[in-house]
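In response to reviewer comment 3 from the previous cycle, which asked for concrete evidence that the modeling workflow produces usable outputs, we include below a single protein chain processed end to end. The sequence was submitted unchanged, and the resulting structure tokens are shown without manual editing.
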Amino acid sequence: MLGEHSALAIDLLADVFRASRFDADDIAREREVVLEEIAQIEDTPDDLVHDLFHQEYWREHPLGSPVCGTRASVARFDRDACLALLAARYRPDRLIVTAAGKVYHAALVDAIGARFGDLDGRAAAVDDCVPTARGCVAVHQRKLEQVQLVLGTRGVAVTDPARDAVAVLNAALGDSPSSRLFQEIRERRGRAYSIDSFVSSYRDTGYVGIAAGTRARWVREVVDVIVMELRRLRREGLPADELARAKGKLKGTLLLALETSEQRMERLALEEMYFGRAVSADEIARRIDAVTNDDVVGAAERLFVADGCALVLLGDVGRHAPGIDVFEALG
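The workflow returned the following structure tokens.
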């Protein structure tokens, strides 16, 4: 939005936050919208497999629940449930306001204070039990042309001191077309169209994931290559040139993320939630530059262990699913 419209935007946000009607008819319509979203995810295998992975890996914990809920939970959602959630969670001790762009800090503070300053109460306590990851191989049989798979290992929390080493490791493993997994599985072997790795970090835990889509007959080969690359990282880490490229990739991504006000705003909110302060790009770049190969090996040894791995397969897998012993090759 234009800077001169900021007062109107704050008014609208305050009205939504504090004076929503939660009309029963509106909620009934929105329930149908969410049910359609659930149906869309179920019809999109490369999205659905991630929900299935969370359910298997974080079983018996809220992290394992789908973000959209289930058909049963959505069907129970009504006006009373909206109001109860608002009263329990949307309290001033959980409220963070961030802005980026053409912003005058003092004026913004005054405007927010005028509209939210009289909020009272504290949010209800949230169960902070740290989830326990479950090692497994889980097959979800479905008639599809491809098998979608997610292989996950232990990860790190957002504030973990090893987070920068894990980010560097991930950049080299599968976070770009020049990464190890992309080059080996797609370019050299032709066993997948899409293959990538990612890091999911939360307040108190996380995981490193690898996602791919392949034919059923190639599932074991693809999984074997992934495990081989994880083992290589445990034993050798990254040679100097590959370590430098991974760092350069991360710093480039960091700078690109500063090019829009929206991304800056979101980053400020996350930093305030997790660190209680704004973290400069220079500080992050210095931490990335400080990562050594010993740090990468240490992170890989800590995370890539057989009993912390899970594999979820979605598709017409048949007899091609590997057993849980596939992870023993990690050593």
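The chain has 13 helices and five strands. We consider this sufficient to address the reviewer's concern, and the full set will be provided in the supplementary archive.
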